[in-house]
């Protein structure tokens, strides 16, 4: 089972 | 004061077609270096980064950095009114609440201007660090579009695996499963037909096909597409825009629970 990652998990909000 | 004259106006029309279904509202940032945009889709799974460098414009005047919030559906409506051969000029005043798109026919016998209201958009900018990717695949953009379209008729997600044997696209769904393998090839007569794989480490990531299919709307901008992948990082799907810049899509992978 897999879930959709979100971009904030990989890149920082600036 | 901002005045950007793009002789190949069709490029801007194509850019809008490529991003308007992914992103509704976005800030276009204008600076000395170019005309750019960074925006995420509403679910924060995909991001588009556009750059049109200032030296790609026939005339580029941007007195001070300007961020213009635009509704992309409305912008697309206006750009659809430009002919494919038209020269497009984007004009805005500092601190103004509108932007003007001017369309000139190649023979200069028809000139139109369309003024669009700007909007305030709270933009969430992501800092994307420069990364050495584990694998970079360059392939014909039409081939990539074909694979994404074909596989989405079978399943919702695709596993993209890069190994020394090539790049493999796999999916499965209720009716069955499918694998497409593209091997490195070298085309003597046409570089655009080549598939080139640079790999430091094998990598395998899972993505939602719905987003990849949306990215392939940029296929008209470039004959080739580049997929850059690293373990546990979003894939970068890049289309170069001839002589002027690029459009990059970032897509977060599916994560194993």
Report on this model:
The complex is a heterodimer of chains A (14) and B (257). Chain A is mainly β. Helix content of chain A is 0%, strand content 36%. Chain A has strands spanning 2-4, 12-13. The termini of chain A are far apart. Chain B has helices spanning 10-19, 72-79, 141-152, 209-215; strands at 2-6, 25-30, 34-40, 46-53, 59-62, 66-71, 87-92, 98-104, 111-117, 126-127, 135-140, 157-163, 166-173, 176-182, 196-199, 203-208, 224-229, 235-241, 245-251, 254-256. Chain B has 257 residues and is mostly beta strands. In chain B, a hairpin with a 5-residue loop joins strand 3 (34-40) and strand 4. The relative contact order of chain B is 0.18. Chain B has four helices and 20 strands. The A-B interface holds A 1-14 and B 40, 43-47, 124-129, 157, 206, 208, 232-234, 250, 252-257. Strand 1 of chain A pairs antiparallel with strand 20 (254-256) of chain B.
Order of helices and strands of chain B: EHEEEEEHEEEEEHEEEEEHEEEE
> How many β-strand runs of chain B?
20
Shape call of chain A: rod-shaped
- Count the DSSP helices of chain A: 0
Helix % of chain A is under 10%
Helix content of chain B: 10-25%
The order of strands across the largest sheet of chain B is 6-2-3-4-19-18-17-11-15
- Output the helix-strand order of chain A: EE
Main sheet attributes: strand count, strand direction, barrel closure of chain A: none
| Largest inter-chain contact set | A-B, 14 and 25 residues
Instruction: List the uncertain runs of chain A.
Output: none
- What is the number of strand segments of chain A? 2
Unreliable stretches of chain B, pLDDT < 50, 5 or more residues?
none
């Amino acid at each position: 089972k897999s879930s959709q990652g979100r971009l904030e998990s990989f890149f920082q909000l600036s | 004061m901002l005045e950007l004259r793009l002789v190949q106006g069709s490029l801007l029309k194509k850019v809008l077609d490529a991003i308007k279904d992914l992103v509704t509202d976005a800030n276009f940032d204008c600076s000395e270096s170019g005309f750019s945009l960074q925006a995420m889709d509403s679910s924060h799974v995909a991001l588009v980064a556009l750059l049109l460098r200032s030296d790609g414009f026939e005339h580029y005047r941007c007195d001070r950095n300007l961020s213009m919030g635009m509704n992309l559906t409305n912008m697309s409506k206006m750009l659809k009114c430009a002919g494919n051969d038209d020269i497009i000029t984007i004009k805005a005043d500092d601190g103004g609440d509108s932007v003007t798109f001017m369309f000139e026919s190649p023979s200069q016998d028809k000139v139109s201007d369309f003024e669009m209201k700007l909007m305030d958009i709270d933009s969430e900018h992501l800092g994307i660090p420069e990364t050495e990717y584990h694998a970079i695949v360059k392939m014909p953009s039409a081939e990539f579009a074909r694979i994404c379209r074909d596989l989405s008729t079978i399943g919702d997600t695709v596993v993209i695996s890069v190994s020394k044997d090539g790049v493999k696209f796999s999916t499965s769904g209720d009716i069955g499963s499918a694998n497409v393998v593209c091997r490195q090839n070298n085309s003597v007569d046409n570089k655009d037909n080549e598939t080139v794989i640079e790999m430091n480490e094998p990598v395998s990531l899972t993505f939602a096909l719905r987003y990849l299919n949306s990215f392939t709307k940029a296929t008209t901008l470039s004959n080739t597409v580049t997929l850059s992948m690293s373990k546990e990082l979003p894939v970068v799907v890049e289309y170069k825009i001839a002589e002027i810049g690029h459009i990059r899509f970032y897509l977060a992978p599916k994560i194993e629970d």
